Amino acid sequence: MTGRTTSGPSVNEAPKADERRHAWAYLSAVTQGASRTVSAAIAEHGVVEVADAARKGSAGAELTAKLGPRAHLDTAAADLERLDRAGGRLITPDDEEWPAWQMLGFDQLDTATDAEGPPLALWVWGQRRLDELVERAIGIVGTRAASGYGEHVTAEITGDLAVDGWTVVSGAAFGIDAAAHRAALGVGGTTVAILACGVDRAYPAAHAKLLRGISESGLVISEYSPGTVPARYRFLARNRLIAALSGGTVVVEAGWRSGARNTAAWARRFGRPVMAVPGPVTSAASQGCHRMIREGEARLVGNARDIVEECGPLLGVDDDRDAQFVRALDGLSGDLALVYEALPATDACEPIAAAESAGVSVDRVRAALPLLEMEGLVQRDEDGWSRVAGR
């Protein structure tokens, strides 16, 4: 975008920023979720150029197949204005508060489908900075048909985490999700709700007051533009964002087949700790948790301290009560522990060799290695990946 320069750089920068934001809003509404194809085109050509090509129908066969059916629906200006009036905004990869670290996991998913990419942008309701809220965040999920036991345990764990400054991330559904949000708010803590519809829609409708409370001290988030209605596939897509924005995921109650287990599966793909709270052996609501623990998909936890021990080292948080006995490796679990132990002590190797040694897939190894590198536990050179000496 060109313009006159007689008044200095700010004359051009503001219109350019507005043009980019409108382009992000347009593509978010047209794409209706994540698309690796669209994200790759934006990375190569720029968001404004891709949006212009989509509007003109000149985006090429692959992009046109994805964007063509909705390309004529340019509601960007109205969407941005509607959200601004409600006290919300659009967060894009252009913004400083974009949670770049949390999105790294998407880059490691070699087997991901087109729709399993990172969100193009995030529509948020609330005034807090997203990057600050998710710096120390725990996802807490579970069944909608929660028992009294499940709601009690959720309140106890969530309340303790929130008091200690952890952000609680969940999906605003009935049952465990709602119990987690309410417990965090009840102790004056911070919580983030991720929706499978536009943030201007209260879903479920009974949670309209709860969502407003969340927006006042935390954030309500969606990758879908305002006005988008809930759909089953959007709930499954929503689960990956709960896992991505959390340093670890806790399942409190889950049936044998459960959406909460889908969220946990995403956390494992990202290389994040997965934890499950056991319940009575007679409770159908806890069978999914028991199965995850039994099959090694989750670590058993019973309180907030157990969760911090699992997730704290990954996020740079120490438990001061046991600090003198804790090493950097003590908090590793799941794929992180398996991959670290699979690396040679005095040599380097490639991910495929580490996968064979650890007994996990190559894509899970590739997801774990950058997280271990950020913790200063491993390093990469021309020979491959190796442990950092002295850790």
Automatic annotation (TrEMBL):
It comes from the Bacteria. Residues 90-311 form the Smf/DprA SLOG domain. It holds the Pfam family DNA_processg_A. Belongs to the DprA/Smf family. This is DNA-processing protein DprA. The gene is dprA.
